[in-house]
Predict the structure of Solute carrier family 35 member B1.
Amino acid sequence: MEAHGGGLRRVLVLAFCVAGIWSAYIYQGVLQENVSTKRFGPRQERFEHLAFLNLAQNVVCLIWSFIMIKMWSGGNSGGAPWWTYWSAGITNTIGPAMGIEALKYISYPAQVLAKSSKMIPVMLMGTLVYGIRYTLPEYLCTFLVAGGVSTFALLKTSSKTISKLAHPNAPLGYGLCFLNLAFDGFTNATQDSLKARYPKTSAWDIMLGMNLWGTIYNMIYMFGWPHASGFEAVRFCQQHPEAAWDIFLYCCCGAVGQNFIFLTISQFGSLANTTITTTRKFVSIVISSLLSGNPLSTKQWGCVFMVFSGLSYQIYLKWQKLQRLQKKRKAM
């Protein structure tokens, strides 16, 4: 009976994590698309300074992580020193800025799909630089994802979707997304290295260090000279409070989503988190298509299913590998 109660508790916690991640990041996606495509005020002005979203999110997540560390570890966690995040902070500033900037040139579903192909640069770098050999199923996953994304990019986008973009330019938009992935790869590798060197580093320590440097770099970029774009962004928000409110909610969604990701990883592992976030991306595309007026053709939906079939198969391969490792440990 006690085991049954414990199992039910875990199911409820997992359902809570799924609901939290989905609601936070799906709503954040809606807000991101809204800010990047909507026209504000009687003059129908666009919010062109999308990099400001990263600065705002850095500030909110910095404050949030500082509060969490003070609440849960008394401010002395023994993790990696704040200055060690400076290099990862550079790539973590440039990468997301490129991803958001891509929304000027391609639709939100196209951006989500392109950013779902993170395995492609990872496997490419692994093969060319480190000489890593991958299995046939792993190459199949990559083929499905790469084939789906490239075919989606080549198919004609509807005129309704193009009319919402600030500066339609598919090659530039996809190029920015793949550069975002490349920078993310370096960021993740640096975070893993810091975690290995400082084992007591918590998720909150990483969040604090990354957002501290992100705030510094973005403040320099956005406000470092008299006519920098940050001043225009602040002026736009003052003139259009609706845009400012959307940006604030966007930042809050990011901070709340991080909480649920950390909870999921700590309770159920990274594989469960990968599964939840991958399905969330698919739901984001569906919602964007149905609610935000980004219609996809039958062929484009085929590409979406192709990409997520590859991602689902990758999750299944990771699950198989995890099962084999657990069996080996039990045998020992």
